[in-house]
Amino acid sequence: MKPDGIPEQMKRAFAITKKDIRIYYAKGPVVIFGLFMPLFLFLAFAVGNRGLSMPFLISGLLAMTVFFTATAVSPVIQPWEAQARTLERLIACPITMKTLIAGDMFASFLFAVGIAAVPIAIGLLLGIVPIAPLLLICGIILASLCFSALGLLLSTPATNVPSNIMMLSSLLKFPLIFISGVFIPVEQLPFWGQVLAICSPLTYFTDIARYCMMGTHTFPIVIDCAALLVWTIVFTILAIVLHERTVSRRI
Fold first, then answer.
1. DSSP, residue by residue, the chain
2. CA torsion 243→87→164→238, rounded to 10°?
3. Residue ranges of the domains in the chain?
4. What is the CA radius of gyration of the chain?
5. Which residues of 225-251 are buried (b: 16+ CB within 10 A; e: fewer)?
6. Per residue of the chain (251 residues), what is the pLDDT tens digit?
């Protein structure tokens, strides 16, 4: 069956978004992995590093929260659905893989943007007011899209066992936290760490958050925004292409 035009596909993508939110995102694990885990990491690091300023720590908490929330569930949606035999019904519908990816990605994006308000609120309670609120909002939007696309890219291996994907996701996410300037400024990392930091999309959002909270940054803000946009496009295209190749081996 030939899929309908773009407006109809967009409606179907939003239907997939609503389904994802109802089944997957309105659950405890999203709050645990998206908010509590970054918060506990933040508290552990803050207690052991009393010389760091609170704006530095809050900007790192914001970066971790957006990153963990956007990648909390998106990597395992398709493995879960393949395991429950619901992916077959989706594939049989008149939708394209782009529509399916867009629906999953938008659900992850909405939750990442929403939960990002929590660390910002914590900062406001501590008297930390963003000096560039519009830039911060734009950065959160870009980063949420980018990390959501990354989460979908991580779900491309042809498996219907969610734990396999979660293991792969954790192996990537936790090292990125420590090389992306969240706890240690990029300029203080060793040379090999700085090289790896340049390759991490989290580095650029952390830099934007730090500028909006402290007024300092490592890279030009234009470069930060451009890098997030480029990574979003790359991750999205790769996710679509790889899912199209592997979906038949899941069902």
1. -----HHHHHHHHHHHHHHHIIIIISSHHHHIIIIIHHHHHHHHHHHH-TTS-HHHHHHHHHHHHHHHHHTTSGGGHHHHHHHTT-HHHHHHSS--HHHHHHHHHHHHHHHHHHHTHHHHHHHHHTT---S-HHHHHHHHHHHHHHHHHHHHHHT-SS-S-HHHHHHHHHHHHHHHHHHTTSSS-GGGS-HHHHHHHHT-HHHHHHHHHHHHHHS--SS-HHHHHHHHHHHHHHHHHHHHHHHHHHGGGT-
2. 10
3. 6-249
4. 18
5. bebbeebbeebbeebbebbeeebeebe
6. 445 677 888 888 888 888 888 877 766 666 666 667 777 777 777 666 656 788 888 898 899 889 988 888 888 888 888 777 777 777 777 788 888 888 889 988 998 898 899 889 988 998 999 999 999 999 999 999 999 999 999 988 877 877 788 888 888 888 888 888 888 888 888 888 899 999 999 999 999 999 999 988 999 999 999 999 999 999 999 999 998 888 777 76
d(CA 14, CA 236): 17
Phi-psi domain of 195 (left: phi exceeds 0; alpha: psi -120 through 50; beta: other): alpha
What is the distance between the alpha carbons of residues 239 and 228, in angstroms, rounded to a whole number?
A: 16
Return d(Cα 81, Cα 238) in angstroms, integer: 20
